[in-house]
């Protein structure tokens, strides 16, 4: 009976640790990185009909270049604008290689 209780306790602890280890691969970028991205996007002009909120998912390659995975919108102009201005740009302080970052941006009409 003691072995059964010990086995049941080990099973409960093992199962609880699996659920407690909810790994979220999406990391928030640092303020410095966010400021660099905003500068890159402000340098170019895009004509939009209305404001857009975009959640950009990206990672960094071994050379420290940003690789945009998903611009997070359906507007084709905005997708190409984001990819042209951010994809394969080098950053002074890039994030960790092969980590997926998620950053919300609000693009306003000027």
What does this structure look like?
This protein has helices at 2-20, 31-42, 76-86; strands spanning 26-27, 52-60, 66-70, 100-107. It is an alpha+beta fold. It has a four-stranded mixed sheet with strand order 1-4-2-3, covered by helices on one side. Strand 2 and strand 3 (66-70) form a beta hairpin. It is elongated, with a radius of gyration of 21 Å.
Largest sheet: 4 strands, mixed
Portion in strands: 15-25%
Structural class: alpha+beta
Q: How far is the N terminus from the C terminus?
A: 74 Å
Low-pLDDT segments: none
Any idea how many domains? Answer: 1
Annotation keywords:
alpha+beta, 4-stranded mixed β-sheet, 110 residues, elongated
Nutshell version of this structure?
With 110 residues, the chain is α+β, with helices and mostly antiparallel strands.
List the helices and strands and how they pair.
Blueprint: H1 2-20, E1 26-27, H2 31-42, E2 52-60, E3 66-70, H3 76-86, E4 100-107
Parallel strand pairs: 1-4
Antiparallel strand pairs: 2-3, 2-4
């Amino acid at each position: 009976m003691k072995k059964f209780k010990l086995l049941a306790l080990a099973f409960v602890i093992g199962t609880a640790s699996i659920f407690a280890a909810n790994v979220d691969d999406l990391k928030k970028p640092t303020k410095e990185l966010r400021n660099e991205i905003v500068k890159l996007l402000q340098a170019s002009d895009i004509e939009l009909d209305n404001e857009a909120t975009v959640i950009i998912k990206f990672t960094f390659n071994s050379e420290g270049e940003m690789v945009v995975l998903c611009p997070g919108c359906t507007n084709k102009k905005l997708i190409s604008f984001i990819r042209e201005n951010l994809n394969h740009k080098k950053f002074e302080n890039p994030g960790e290689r092969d980590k997926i970052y998620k950053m919300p941006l609000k693009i306003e009409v000027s």
